[in-house]
Structures are given as structure tokens and as C-alpha cells.
Amino acid sequence: MKIYINGKEIYCAEHESLLTVLRRHAHPVNAVCAGMGTCKKCRVRVLNPQFPTKAERDALSDAEIDAGVRLACMTQVFDGMRAESEELEAVHTSARQNAQRTQDAPFAAIADIGTTTVAVGLVDLQSKEIFDSIVQNNAQAPYGADVITRIKNVENDGSAQTRLITAQVSGMLQGLLQKYPSGFNKLLYVSGNTTMLHIFFGVPCASIGVAPYSPVFLESRTASAASLGMNVDASIISLPCVASFIGADITAGVVSLFSESERYTLLVDLGTNAEIVLFNKNKFFASSAAAGPAFEGANIRCGCAAVPGAVCGVKKSENSVIFETIDNAPAVGICGSGLIDIAAFLLEQGSIDATGQLRYDEYKIDGGVAVYPEDIRELQLAKSAVCSVAELLLDKAGIGETEVERLCLSGGFGHYINAENAAFIGLFPKSLAGKAVAVGNTSLAGTALFAADETARARAQRFAANAQVLDLSAGNDFYERFVENMLFLQD
Ligand code: FES
Q1: More reliable by pLDDT, 361 or 97
Q2: Which residues line ligand 1 (CB under 6 A)?
Q3: For the chain, which domains are there?
Q4: Which atom of ligand 1 is found nearest the CA of 37?
Q5: Cis omega before residue 373 (within 30°)?
Q6: Which of 9, 190, 436, 489 sits at 20 to 30 Å (Cα–Cα) from 241?
Q7: What's the 109 CA to ligand 1 centre distance in angstroms?
Q8: CA of 34 to the centre of ligand 1 (A)
Q9: Rounded to the nearest whole angstrom, what is the distance from the C-alpha of residue 273 to the centroid of ligand 1?
Q10: pLDDT band at 252 (very low <50, low <70, confident <90, very high)
Q11: pLDDT at residue 93, rounded to an integer
């Protein structure tokens, strides 16, 4: 039978869910819970709707149901169905013309495959600068927002995710190479978390998702782009990973921030999984905690990625409060940095108490965008996990907070984060507030160094081989700290 998605004719089988069809045709629907019916993010509008399912009646308002809004994962296709959604049009793309390329300098390609976003860039091998790059939402979004959900859906769906991500990286790279017809050294360096790299290389990753969480590989891996079905003439080299949940993106982060100093750097990479590394020139301590996808906007009712229109900050003056959005576009949702700022603002004015209770059923931001009590709970879980791991790493290294020279906050929304507000809500130990700096996407920056600099490559290998990984389940007081750090205590 036939259905129409944004006017485009698509053939499908009876009894399929709309999400299954959208996945098969690589439409970038935002299926955070991967079809469990709980996230309510996979909304589409059906122009000729049938009766809603019970799950849809529970999840959507009467007005939404009447307007034809349905959940793609809960709606069965029917002959002649007409569905539409702006989100189904295309992945969001943003391009950055970074540094100037040295004239005719040879260049390498780099890619950072994040769970939420994918960045591809070109790095000048003389200046070691990224001179052009492009960022898109990860095309695997229809298979869930976090790595564990993606792993589960790899089991269910064979190699579909591998095809999606290799095609996406290939397409992004082709787009960049068209602008620079000569000088490419035919090497593509790839970083990403351990799961994303397994999926990219088409390596089974189910073992990462269940105890004892063993990866198939951690070492630097090579393959020809052609062997992965990519339409690019290049060899691929990945950066080494450290553990199942401390991936090559963290190796790249350490490479990009490395300094020959005895004093320590605390790197906090905020994503669906928060990875934290404490290191100086000789020692590396690392751990990760399931922070939940709050920082990626995924488990937040009006949450979204850091796209135009995402509320990304709060600006206060004596008489007014302005909720800032990316590109000053009309508000479409709240991204991670916005959630931190909004929570700090509500905490400061007493609208959130020390236990995290929001005093309103909803706090309206702009248009249909609002914050809800359960959003603050999600943020509490995330900030407590991050802060507790940071404290434990300091203990493991046997150092005090005064020996930390800088606290670097990285991640997809790293550039937007207000470090003062992050400290205020307790995302990290308060004594580090003055040392916090937002460093943006260190994974891409470190991968550029790895591509262009032999010393950086040696550092990456040294970090991967020598990092001491802190196991949160083994004989430490992570859970006691976690409970304590859930509170919003101001001293
Ligand atoms: S509710 Fe449909 S994917 Fe989550």
C-alpha cells in the first residue's frame, strides 16, 4: 500500500508502524525512546487521521489529537495516509568556515561521531587548524537518543544504523571536498564514543550494553572507506578508546587540552553519558556516569538539541528576564545550556527548593515552550552524577580542588554553557566555579591535532594505554554522594 510523507509517495506493508517506515526511508524523526511510546518526541501530523491509539490518547492533549497530531511509533500506517512534519524534511545542518587554509596546503578529513550530532571537518596539515566543517544531527536519531537504546536497536535492526551513519559521514565529507578539489591526503580520522565507533565500523556492539559491558575493540582501527560502503576515496583511521564508556572522543578531548603541567585539568564532557577525566602531564584518571539525556534535551518535555530557536540561556537585568535562543530564532525548545540557566534562575528566585521541587505545574518560557517539575528532576539526576564522579576522581588522584588548574566543560552545547550557573546548580564542586571554562567540541579539535601532529598521536596512545578507569560499582561511595548531590544546596 501507499502512504505520503510530506507529499512524497512511499510504499509500505500493512500493520507497520509509521516509525518503522520512516526509519526504512531514513527520515530523521526524533525517536528518543526508540518506539517505546514514552518520550512523546516522535510527533507527526496526520492530515487524514484515524482514531488515536490508547497510548496516543494518554500521551497527547485532546487539542493535539483533534489537530491530527500522532506519535509515529504508536500509529499504524494505512493506505492513503498523509503525514507531515518539518522534522521529517532533513537533518539540521550548520556549516562553519573556521581558519583560513594555507594556500595549497595538504589537508586531511576528520569526523566526530557523537550520539546526538556528527561533525565533519577539514584540517590544514601545515597550520593544524580546521578550516572548514559541517555539523548535523546524527541520522541514527530514529533509533533512540542514548547509546544503550541504540545498542538495543542495533540488535533488532541489523546493519541499518551502520548504513545511516556511514552514508551521513560520506555525504558530509563529499560536500566539503567539492569545495576543495585538490590537496586531500585521502585520510579520514574518526573519533566518537566507543559504541558509535562500533556501529560506524559495522562491528557488533551488543556486549557493550550488558554486564560486564565489554567492547569488541578499543584500539585505533583502520578500514578503507569503500569497505564501509562510503562513496569517498579515503582510508579511515579511528582514535583509540579507553573503555566501553570512555571513548575516542574523550581521548581526543585530552589531546586537545593537554599541557606539560604538573597541575591538573578536569575535563567534563556533557552528553547522554557524562565522561570525566582528571589529568596532568603524567597521570590520567577517568570515569563516566549515565547522566541521562537531559543535557541533550532528550528527556525534557520541551527539550531539543542546540539548534536555531533552542532556548540556550537566560539574561537578567534589573527589571527584566530574557530567555535567549540560538540565532535569536523564535523559541522551539530548550537545549542543555538553557536548562541549566533556567534552573539557576528559578533556584535563585526561590521557585525551586533545595530538594528540587518546582513550585509550579509548569513554568512558561515563551510560546509553547515551558519547564516542568519532571524536567528539574532529570537535571538533578544528571548534575548529581557529574558532580559525584568529579569528586571521586579527585579522591582517586589523592588531590584537593586547589590542585585543579582548570575545569573544562565540553560537549555539543559547550560553547553556550554558563559556567557560573552550572556551578550554582551543583554540576561540579563549587570551589571549582572560578576555574570553569567552556571549551566546545574538544573531540573534533583533538581529532584535528591527531591528524596533523605526531606528538598528538603519541599522546593519544599514551592516554588510552595508561588511563586509570574508576569503576563506580566497585567499593567506593558513589551512591552516597549521588544522593547527597541531588540536593540544590546553597552555602
Ligand atoms: S514516543 Fe515514539 S519514539 Fe518515543
Answers
A1: 361
A2: 31-42, 71-73
A3: 2-88 (3.10.20.30), 93-238 (3.30.420.480), 244-491 (no CATH)
A4: 1
A5: no
A6: 436
A7: 35
A8: 6
A9: 20
A10: very high
A11: 61
